[in-house]
Amino acid sequence: MAERSFAREVEDLKLGEGDIFRGEGILAITKALLQSGVSYVGGYQGSPISHLMDVLADAKDVMNDLGVHFESSASEAAAAAMLSASVMYPVRGAVTWKSTAGTNVASDALSNLSSGGVTGGALVIIGEDFGEGSSIMQERSHAFAMKSQMWLLTPRPNLPAIVDAVEKGFELSEASNTPVMLQVGIRSCHVHGQFTAKDNKRPAFTLREAMENPRRDVSRIVLPPATFLHEKEKLERRWPAAVQFVKDNRLNEFFGPEEGDVGIILQGGLYNSAMRALQQLGLADVYGNSRVPIYCMNVAYPMIDDEVIAFAAGKKAVIMLEEGAPEYIEQTLHTLMRRRDIQTKVSGKDILPLGGEYTAPVLVKGLAAFFEANAPQLLGNRPPVPDAEPVLNDPKVKALAEVVPARPAGFCTGCPERPIFAAMKLVEKELGEHHVSADIGCHLFSILPPFNIGGTTMGYGLGPASASAFNVEADKRSISVMGDGGFWHNGLASSVGNAVFNKQDGVILVVDNFYSAATGGQDILSSRAQNARRKTNNSIVDAVTGIGAKWVRQIDRTYDVAKMRDTLREALTTKETGPKIIVASSECMLNKQRRVKPQFNKAVKEGKRMVKERFGVDEDVCTGDHACIRLSGCPSLSVKHTDDPLKDDPVAAIDNSCVGCGNCGEVSEAAVLCPSFYRADVINNPTGWDRFLHRARNAVIGWLQQRRQSSRIVFAD
Amino acid sequence: MDTLTDSMGTMLSADKPFSIAILAMGGQGGGVLADWIVALAESQGWVAQTSSVPGVAQRTGATIYYLEMIPAREGVTPILSLMPTPGDVDVVIAAELMEAGRSVMRGLVTPDKTLLVASTHRSFAVGEKEKPGDGIGNPETVVDATDFAAKKTVAFDMETLAAKNGSVISSAMFGAFAATRALPFAKEAYEETIKAGGKGVSASLKAFDAAYLRALKGENDKLSATPVKRLDPLPQTAGHAELDRLLTRIRAEFPEIAHPMLYAGVKKLTDFQDPRYADEYLTRVAELHAADRAQGGADKGFAFTVQAAKYVAVAMAYDDVVRVADLKVRGSRFERVRKEVGVKEDQILYMTEYMHPRMDEVCGTLPKGLGLWIEQRPKVFAFLDKRINKGRRVKTGTLFWFSGLYLISALRRIRRGSLRHFREIEHREAWLHKALEVLPINYDLAVEVIGTRRLVKGYSDTHARGLSKFDRVLDALPMLRAREDGAVWLKRLRQAALLDETGIALDGALKTVATL
């Protein structure tokens, strides 16, 4: 079950013709899918489309009513392969994932799908994780569209445009028998806006009908000689069909005056930023009026040659606004101009940055340079452009660099992965540093302070595989880390199977937190919750032993730092050959709290005896060396200055957000830190026996305390 | 509407959207605040848009929510930006002090237009917390920058205010924002928005209102980089003859400037051991003071004496098993924990201490002869350590564990004969000897030698590391004693030693000193 519930928002998916839908981009996409008569939807979670998967999961009832099949795919490859249903049958299908990471994983299936082509509309919704806040390598999905000859839509970042792109995307796919990719950015996924809804549509042709009336056509299978025909068909039939459809339906848009010396060609996704930049240059207004002609490519691939030529011909110069590297569209544009022998100058990455986000200030700079060179008269009465430079150059502001700390995302309060890495630090102190291959997931935060553990990360579920070269005689072993998400996504075969098969003499640490936690707490195969629509509770230990692993240890409470440390030490030093696999399991605290807190409060309200735990620090005992923080980094474990004039440095302090996971106590005990930590157990609704015992104990303890106090000569406080 | 027409006849509107950037950390409710503002604007007939970059940033990382809004107009659709333009933001709301600093660093706050609404509380970053010394960023730097960069700043501790009203910071920020009147909406419209949200409405409204009123005061919280330390003036009497004798000694034997620190030291040591121990302390500091006076300390404001008053007390109140047990069993401590945890009348509290005693600590507590005897016999030591050295969960509220700790704390009476006490005196005297030796040659350096004691702290390994850093810093003395800037260098070495755990910065600094 995901950490964010869309139960309320899902109601909006039932809106009908003419209703105004208000909400986030991802919800709008879901609504658009239902309005398009989609038959099946799949995908794999990951920012920025995690919530799209969560919405779909929460929209179960709406989907059931419409006869739409939804599944959380095991990986992006599985999701892409799902689109195979649209190859032979006129059913519409959509899948979604984080790109480019997910598109990499899916590309095998996408290539096969594109080669044979589709009958029913096939839509791949990719959340482009690019720019600020991105958690992956900065690449472009555009390359996948080009190499497989799938069409790529990049609608303007507003709800009506995105919804339209979904609906038109299916039609385009069917008109050209080609799968279509719809690219949305991080911000457009989370943009709040509105659009006018339509009625949801039931699929015209159902999956059931398909299964009961199977069809096959050898010419659609990717196998020679059909593949050679596919290539020909792609170029000679599907491409022209797509171009025709895009033209006929005016998927690309023209803004501004019809005539002009210069023009702007842009990817749809950049439209809002470009308009803001033009506005700041005094060439456009907030309502979309522009003094410069604009050709907006809501279809980024293929290029519609005739439209571009018609736009560029007769202009002195055009500028191509294209985010990311390499500049595929710009290159195509140059090729086109050269082939048709058109002398319009093409600018782009010659004046704009090669990489990085094209924010309004970046575009202001680039466009100003372009106009200065090609149409200086446009810049006549230029209003002052917003400029923070003078402020940023002031010494008072520059001084901030010294004090404002970096604040990357990190482990949450009470995270069960923290003690695993604390244990690794302790083992490091005994056995020295080891090569650590990291993986994708929350556990990757171990590379940041205070742990500073982990050398490389090669892909989801590939941590142990990326340590496979280190399978030679040495005095130290490699350690590789992989999460339960990565394990089921790819790791069981590619990492564990590989290690068993090749007798990899390293340590594999599987961090099992019961969810695909980093993406928002979705259930996976080994999740411990009961999920009515999925089969959960499949043991990771059974899986690895089933695949042939021999040295396997299960730790069912990662907070036991001493046990964690001892197990790691054993794994690093045992004589046993082959992979040493430790499955370290404890529930993701973020999800656990969400699950347990309401239950706890309810029980307390009902008068049940409930014990609440949290931790504290005795500030008199703490000397302010912060060794505990260097082995923890928990957000709730902080520091504070005391008023004791004899103490220079701030002491450790635990705030009210503590969830009582016990990590600080266990760490200070295992690392022999200091005795200042205590756990406070608060008994709610104590029983009569509790009260009696407490009274009896207090009588004795209170008497002893009184006795000590009165025998002491001290200054009154 | 204001329009501009050019030669081409294009009509351009001069309307501009109102922009708000919210800087928060994941989980701080920045999203709730953004949604409220959007709902508020929409309810008032505006078009509003918000966007954010959550992703993994929802977990403690710094996040920006960006909003644009503009009054709706018939027949046209505004095009709103999804991210802020530096130098073009009307309002910045920062949910934490350093996030306010970050907003300035990103150019979102400019003097010509930006109203900054910031909570002044701190949520320390790992980089600040993990330093062995004081790694907390200077809040005054942020105040200087925001005062300079913002057109107007509304800054107070919204976190505490919200908590006091049983709510979370988003309600308080909404209230402070409402009070600025940056948007032309009535207070009631804000309140209606909260009510429409439907969750925790009454608490949110209470915090909203409190923040609204607080912001109207127009006075920002004053922040200081110097922590407030309690240095009480010397009282006339402490109500006990033995204590009064100590006070009389302070008054009679020391310059006034050292009185508060000596009083703090005397208080600490009577509490640590007994009045006689505090008297020993005064005797020791008096000797140091005599040397100070002889070296013309009067001209230096008796800096040596004041410094010694502080660190000799710190050294004498070392952290041993007895001290820990003593602090853990006190009635005042039981009461403090009750308060900190917020235990209510009908609840029962038990505490569990996480302790890990080792044979080292046991030997330290034993009488000197016996302790040394065991230490010199590794086999015996190892045999006993095997039985002692393990983690123990001590339930202080139960009779068994309480009486155990109580008995250990009673060892206070024989502490003066313990091995640990002997070692502490040895260490202390060696250190003070070094300081006294330097004093006639380089007064300022001697003061810094005393201050080096700050490096000794922690327990077990951490304590050992602190001691080694202390030794390494003082090993540089021969190179510095004749230098006029010796004190500055020793201070730098001490600061370097507090930068990281293993002493990498200290190594670098020592190398630099060696090249002087």
CATH superfamily of the largest domain in chain A: Thiamin diphosphate (ThDP)-binding fold, Pyr/PP domains
- The beta-strand count of chain B equals 10
Structural class of chain B: alpha/beta
- The separation of the N and C termini of chain B measures 71 Å
Instruction: From the alpha carbons, calculate the radius of gyration of chain B and give it in angstroms.
Output: 30 Å
Structural class category of chain A: alpha/beta
Beta-strand content estimate of chain A? 15-25%
User: Strand order within the widest sheet of chain A?
Assistant: 3-2-4-5-7-6-12
Tell me the major beta sheet of chain B: 6 strands, mixed
Number of helices of chain A: 27
Oligomer state equals heterodimer
Q: What can you see in these coordinates?
A:
- The complex is a heterodimer of chains A (717) and B (516).
- Chain A is of the alpha/beta class.
- Chain A has 4 domains: 7-248, Rossmann fold; 253-386, Rossmann fold (3-Layer(aba) Sandwich), CATH 3.40.50.920; 418-591, Thiamin diphosphate (ThDP)-binding fold, Pyr/PP domains (Rossmann fold, 3-Layer(aba) Sandwich), CATH 3.40.50; 609-685, 2-Layer Sandwich (Alpha-Beta Plaits), CATH 3.30.70.
- Helix content of chain A is 39%, strand content 16%.
- Chain A has 27 helices and 24 strands.
- In chain A, the strands form 6 sheets. In chain A, strands 3-2-4-5-7-6-12 form a 7-stranded mixed beta sheet, sandwiched between helices.
- In chain A, helix 13 crosses helix 16, helix 20 (418-431) crosses helix 23 and helix 20 runs parallel beside helix 26.
- Chain B has helices spanning 30-43, 97-105, 126-129, 139-149, 158-164, 169-180, 187-197, 201-216, 241-253, 259-272, 275-294, 303-316, 321-329, 331-341, 359-365, 368-375, 378-388, 399-410, 419-438, 443-451, 460-475, 477-480, 486-497, 504-514; strands at residues 3-5, 11-13, 18-25, 46-52, 62-71, 91-94, 115-119, 152-156, 348-355, 392-395.
- In chain B, strand 6, helix 2 and strand 7 (115-119) form a beta-alpha-beta unit.
- In chain B, helix 2 (97-105) crosses helix 4 (139-149), helix 11 (275-294) runs antiparallel to helix 12 (303-316) and helix 21 (460-475) packs antiparallel against helix 23 (486-497).
- Chain B is elongated, with a radius of gyration of 30 Å.
- Among the domains of chain B are: 3-216, Pyruvate-ferredoxin Oxidoreductase, domain 3, CATH 3.40.920; 421-516, no CATH class.
- In chain B, the strands form 3 sheets. Chain B has a 6-stranded mixed beta sheet, with helices on both faces.
- Chain B is of the alpha/beta class.
- The interface between A and B is large, with 130 and 151 residues.
- Strand 24 (677-684) of chain A pairs antiparallel with strand 9 of chain B.
